[in-house]
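Hi there. Long-time user, first ticket. I'm pasting a complex I've been working with (about 751 residues overall). I'd like to know whether the download I got is complete or cut off, because the file seemed smaller than I expected. Thanks.
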Amino acid sequence: MIHFNIAPIFKKEFRQISRDKRALGILVFLPAFMLVMVGYALNFDVKHLAVAVADMDRSALSRELVERMTQSEYLELQYRLAAAEDIDPLLESGSATIGVVVPVGFSDNLLAGKDAEVQVLIDGSNSNTGSVAQGYVSLAVRDFSNRLVMRWLEKRGASPSVPVVLEPKLWYNPELKSAKFLVPGLFGLILMIVTVISTSLSIVREKEMGTMEQLKTSPLWSNEIILGKTIPYLLISIVAATMIIIVGWWLFDVTIKGSIPLLYLAIVLFLLGGLGQGILISNVAHTQQVAFIMSVFSSLLPSFLLSGFVFPIDSMPGFLQVFSNVIPAKFFLVIVRSIIMKGVGVGPVWEQFAYLAMFAFATIGISAARLQKELSR
Amino acid sequence: MKAVRELLIKEFLQIRRDKRMLPLILLAPVIQVVLLGYAATVDVKNIRLAVYDGDRSPASRAYIERYTATGYFTVVEHVDDPRDLDAALDGGRATLAVHIPRHFARDVASGRPVRVQLLADGSDANTANISLNYAAQITAGYAESIFAERLARVGGITVPRVSAETRVWYNPELRSANYMVPGVVALILMIITTTFSAAAIVREKEAGTIEQILVTPIKPLQFILGKLLPFTIIGIVEVGLVLGVAVLWFDIPLRGSIALLFGLCGLFILTTLGLGLFVSTISRTQQQAMMTAQFFIFFPFLFLSGFTFPIENMPPVIQTLTYGIPLRYFIQIVRGLFLKGVGLEVLWPQALALLIFGAVILGLSVMGFRKRLG
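Hi, the file is complete. Here it is re-exported in full:
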C-alpha cells in the first residue's frame, strides 16, 4: 500500500479556502439560504386560477353551472362580464387564465331536451397551467351534465346514484406540497454545483497561476494531490448537506423517515462522484472560464433537467430517458426521495447505490490516471 | 474611440487564443436549448398504473380499459393481493394504483355506488394531482355511459347533455416547449453576458494586468466599454442562434416582431452587463466571481422570474420580491412576443421596467467600478 501524504496539500487548500471568507460563506451557508428561497418559491400547485365568466343566459341553470365550476379551490371566479368579447383582453394581459361563455338559450335548450354547449377559452401559453385548467373545467362541466341526468333518473324512479365513487389516497405527501418533493431534489442540484464547480476551478486556478508546475516538482503523487485537493471540499459539502437537512426539517417539515446513516452514505458517494467529475474537467480545461462553462454544462444543467428534479422523466422522449441514465443526480434523487419520504432501506434502491459508487470510482480513477500522466511529463 | 477599438481587438484575441472557448460559447447555448426543448416538459404522460381487480368481471375490465384508452396510463402491473399495490408504489414501479373491490359488476348493475380506491404516489405533487384529475374525468365518463344504460331501461329517451367547447389560445396543443424555449432565450442571454463580462475583468485583476492597463492613458470608462462590448456582440449572436434552433428545429411560433425582440434583448443586456460589472467589482478571484454570479444572481433569477415556476403560485411575500427581478420582465416580454404576438402596446410596462433597471444597475456599477479603481 502506498504511503499517503496528503496533509500538506490538504492544509494548503483549507488555508486558501478559509482565507477567502466569502467563498467559504457561500459554500457553507448559501445552500441553506437557497433552500429557503426556493422552497417557498418553487411551486407547481396550480390553485386559484382566475376565471372570467360571461353568462349571457342569466338563468337558474347557467348560474348553477358557474357555481359548480368555481366552488373548488382550483378555479376562482374573478370577473363577471356582460359581453363575450370582454374576455379577450383579460386573457391577453394574463389577468384571467380561463374564460367561460354561457350562450343565450343555454337553459331553454336544456329544458327543451336539446344538448347545450358552453364555450371555454384557456390561456395555453403556460402549458402546465393550461392543461390543468382544461382538466378542471371539463371535469366540472361533466359533473354538471351528470347531475342533470341524475335528477331526471330520480324523477323516473331509477337509481340516481353515481356508479363509481373514487376514494383517492395520497401517500408519502398527503397535503401534496410541492416543497416536500422539491427539497430533496434541491439537495442533488446544490451539492453538484458546490463540488464540481469548486474543485474544477480550484485546480485550474493553479494551472493558470503556474503553481501547478510547483506541485509537479514536489515529491507528491497524483493521488495525494487529488485527495488533498478534494477532501476539504468533501468536508465542506457534508456540512452544507447537513445545513440543508436542518433547514428542510425546520422550515418545511421535511422529516427523514428512513435511516440517517444511509442517507449520509448516499451523500458521500454522490459527492465523491461530483469531485471526480470536477477533477476530470480540470484535466481538460486550461482556463477557469472554460472550466466553469464545462462544469455548468456537465453538472448543473443535466442535474436540473434530466434528474427528475422538476421535470418527470417518464414524460420525456425516449432517447432522453435513455440518456438520463448516465446522470448521477437522477439516481441520487431516487435514493434521497425514497429515504426521506418513503422511509425505505437499501433493498429497493441498491441499484442506485451501486451506480453512484461506480460513477465515483470511474471519475476519480480516470482523473487520477490522467493527472499522473500530466505530472510525470 | 480608438482606445476602445484596441481593447475590443485585445479581448477578441484573448477569446480566440483559448481554443476551447469559442466553440463552447457558441455550442453550449445550442445544446442547452435543444436539451431544454425536449426535457423541460411538465406534461404528465405515461402514468404507470398498478391494478388490483377484486372482481375480475367484464364490467371491471371495461372500467380499467377506460384508463388505458386515454393514452395517459400504462398498466405496469396486475396484482393478486391488494397489499402488493403498496409495494409497487414503494418501489417506485407505479405512480398510481387502483383497487377495485369485489362485487363491482353486481353493485354497478344494481345502482349501488361502488367505492374504488386510488392510491397515488404524492411525492411528486404535480404529477399526482394531474393523474387524479384524469382518473376523475375517466370515472365521470364511465358514469355517463352507465346513466345512458339506465335511461334506456326506464324510458328509452335521451336526456340533454352539456358539453364544453374548449379553445386553447396561444399554444393550442399545450406544448411545454412552446412555453419553455422562449424563456431559454432570456436565460442564455443572461448567463453568457453576465458571467463572461465579470470573468473577463476579474481575470485581469487576478493576473495583475489591470494595474498595467490603468497606467496607460486608457480611461476607466473606455476600459469598461472595451470589456463589455465583445460580450454584448457575442450575446446578440447567441440570441440569433438560439432563435434559429427554436423556430426551425422546435417549430416554436414567433408571432411578434423580430426587430422588437432584438431591440428588447439590447435593453436587457444593459442590466446583465451592469450585473457582471458589479460582480467583478466585488470579487477578487474568478472562482469568487462565478460563485457570486451563480448563487446570488442566476439562482434567484431562475427561480423567481417565472421561468419554470408560475409567479401566481408563490406566496404573496415572494410575489412582491419578484418585481425586483429584471429577468421577470424580460421573460414576460419574450413569451408575449413569441406566443401571443403582442407588441409594445401591451408590453410597454415591462420594457420600461427593463430600461429603468438597466440604467440604474449599469450606472451604479460603472460608478462603483470607477471609484474602486480611483
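A couple of notes from our side: Residues 302 and 329 of chain B are 13 Å apart (CA to CA). Residues 2-41+175-373 of chain B form one domain.
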